[in-house]
Amino acid sequence: MLTFNAQADMQSVRIGVYENPPKIMLGPDGRPSGILGELIQEIALREDWQLQAVPCNWDVCLQLLQEGKIELMPDVAFSEQRQTLMSFHHQPALHSWSQVFRHADVEIDSVLDLDQKRVAILAGSIQQDFLKQINQEFGIQMELVRVSDLQSALNLLAEGKADALATNNLFGGYHGNGYDLKQTSILFQPARLFFATSLNQHPELLEKIDYWLEQWGAEQDSPYNRILQNWQSSVEVQVIPRFVWVGLITLLGLLLLALLTMRYLRQKVQRTQHELKMSDDKLITILNNLQAYVYIKDPQHRYLYVSPKVCELFNCTEEEILNKTDEAFFDSESVAEIFRLDDRALMSGDSIVKEEVNKLPGENEPRTFLSVKVPMRDSKGQIYALCGLATDISEQKRHKKEVHQLIFYDVLTGLPNRRLLMDRLQHSLASRHNQQGNGAVILIDLDNFRTLNDTLGHQAGDQLLTGIATRLSEHIRASDTLARFGGDEFMLLLEDLSTDDTLLLNQVEQVLDKIIAALEHPFRIQNQEYTTSASLGVALYSDSKHNPEELIKRAELAIYDAKKVGRNQIRFFDTSMQQKAEHRAELEFGLRRALKNQEFILYYQPQYHAEGEMTGVEALIRWQPPEQPLVSPGDFIPVAETTGLILPLGQWILRTACQQLVSWSEHPDTAHLTIAVNISAAQMHHNSFVDDVLSILQETGAPANRLELELTESLLIDNIEQTIEKMLLLKAEGIRFSLDDFGTGFSSLSLLISLPLDTLKVDQAFVRDMHRDARDLAVVRTIIDLGRSLALNVIAEGVENLDQRDALQRFGCRSFQGFLYARPMPIDAFASHKNTIPPYQGL
Ligand SMILES: Nc1nc2c(ncn2[C@@H]2O[C@@H]3COP(=O)(O)O[C@H]4[C@@H](O)[C@H](n5cnc6c(=O)[nH]c(N)nc65)O[C@@H]4COP(=O)(O)O[C@H]3[C@H]2O)c(=O)[nH]1
């Protein structure tokens, strides 16, 4: 609070005084001294202020000012923050800057030298804040020793408890000599010094100070300048001349720039360090989780680094592995190979990628590693180590092998399968350009395999197939390929055979003999001896013009031909087979079209009783292609049977015959006539045969007892029980059955007895030759006798003349069919047909 001297109206102004020479201090007379002390005395003199010095240290002075216990505080550097607490005049009372002064014994040239140094500072001063920041910005560890007054700081320096002092330049300069202080180049925070009042208090005091400073600043010989000059002798720099100020600002700018640069660099270093740490961490995480073995070895194969996976593999700790070579971990053979590859990479300087197969002691199976070896170079390009990355691919390898086995090998026999054989054949044909030598494919088809399967079961079949595979494998060369080609088919591919035709045939025949011989010996199937045979089809090749499919087809054609003759046959493919095959293909195509375009016609051949009366007809199919001659069934029925076209064709025949029966049933003259329809094996064995026949009967309304189904002996070979079952079902509906071609096959009497037959047909081949061949005559008589004894109707077909008819009748045959009476004819011709053959006169 300002007080006034009542007598002289003098304003009492209390000023805080602390020891900061040469700027401010308490004079021996108890009055403010130093530059600012004397200055304020000069002003007080002129303004009639009764100046009262209140001794305090910096902190206490500030406190007193806040509390209003002093009016003025000298030597206050202006700052934005202080402006919120105190009020300042405008004209700076003094300029100064902060500077680090070192003890003469301590080396400090730059900010970085402050690291680990004890620097004394006035507690709460602006130097304190700044130096704290320096610590942070530069990442140095400077110890800030706080003191309540600057004298204490000097004492600490004198006692060796501080290495440096950060203070204003004036104070440092003033005490430089006395305390062995040396200026450093660390200058910072230039400051403008003012007298301050508590915030917004006593503006009149500040106004007066401004007034006098302005006055005196302009005068050369003003009290202000005299004070400065007086103190000049005690400090090296008292007032900063303008050019020094500019220099200082520049210096400061540079310092700030340096600081900023340093800060930027430091941040960059920190960032880089951080990034390095991050990538280090990342790298360690990656290495720890990598499903690969990573290592670094020196040129002597000693491990310098191993990833955790390597430790796992060797079942050792990192310490146990480092400095050891692979000799400690793999078997000797593996080690030799590892060293060889390591050395190759180290010597050549090139990376190596290789599959390594190494065996670890104690493991039964070797492991396969996909290994990458990369030589490591120093800054001069010298190789100093080898970095490796290996992945265990054993599982994939095994898996790949299994998949390969499944794709290319037959599961049952372990032989190559069709696919692999085709592949090898393709390869063999493709390499014909470069190689001499012919080749052959031999298709081996087991006879009666189906019967074995049906009678003894699939296991027996499998046993035979594996037995055959083993036996045949023993008789072939390593360069030949034996494959399982299908159910009961094997294929043998012979390569590099002679180019001489005769020699080539000899070679192939030798192999065929070996195959036949190998199969001749009985096999042991389910503890029984089982003898088998095979049909062999051979196709030779000598150039690359063929493709694999074509060659296989040729072998199949040959085997087809072999099977036609019987079992246990060998056939070489020849071009006539090819022609036949092509003809068959054409026929098949034509038949499909014929079915669609309804090019078929049903012919009827009458059957007569001995008395001359027509009893029925045999329906015989004809194919009438547009603008082409009629095709007889002998040419197309076999193709229809093998292609399955017989099923739709058979249905058409049955339906047409049934419609004819319906039409005849409407006329008394024809109502008694029967129609015999030929049934093929494929039709009979088809699941829906019975249903198909019955539904056609129902659909057409034909009388079932007028329909006769003609079966052949060969049809009865397979599935006899099932065939009988079907016959009984149809017979129950009134349908009749006749057996064609009886005597041409091998049917036994017991089979004949078990069949629900109505008619037995004497095959036309026996009838034709009965007068030329006594054996045929005997067969004819036997069949007729047999039929009669079984109470079957016996009909002879192919009767061409009266001699034949008469002889047959003499033997007891009562029914006839043949050109003698009529040829097969279309229905139109049938209406006008009359029997002109006189009855037998002999009886
Ligand atoms: N040399 C001579 N031949 C005579 C005489 N009498 C009849 N033939 C012929 O003998 C064959 C009798 O028929 P198949 O033995 O059932 O033999 C038939 C039969 O197996 C089959 N076939 C004919 N039509 C059909 C049919 O509709 N369905 C089925 N599945 N096969 C049929 O085709 C074979 C041949 O039929 P086709 O050529 O019509 O020949 C017929 C017939 O024309 C004769 O006195 N002398």
Defining key terms:
single chain, 843 residues, alpha/beta, Beta-Lactamase, Alpha-Beta Plaits, TIM Barrel, 8-stranded mixed beta barrel, 7-stranded mixed sheet, 24% strand, disordered N terminus, binds ligand C2E, transmembrane helix, EC 3.1.4.52
What is this entry, summarized?
The protein is of the alpha/beta class. It has 29 helices and 32 strands.
Describe the structure.
- By secondary structure, the chain is an alpha/beta fold.
- Among the domains are: about 110 residues, Beta-Lactamase (2-Layer Sandwich); about 160 residues, Alpha-Beta Plaits (2-Layer Sandwich); about 250 residues, TIM Barrel (Alpha-Beta Barrel).
- The chain has 29 helices and 32 strands.
- The strands form seven sheets. Strands 25-26-27-28-29-30-31-32 form an eight-stranded mixed β-barrel, surrounded by four helices.
- Strand 3 and strand 4 form a beta hairpin.
- The termini are far apart.
- About 35% of the residues are buried.
- The N terminus is likely disordered.
- Ligand C2E binds next to strand 26 and helix 20.
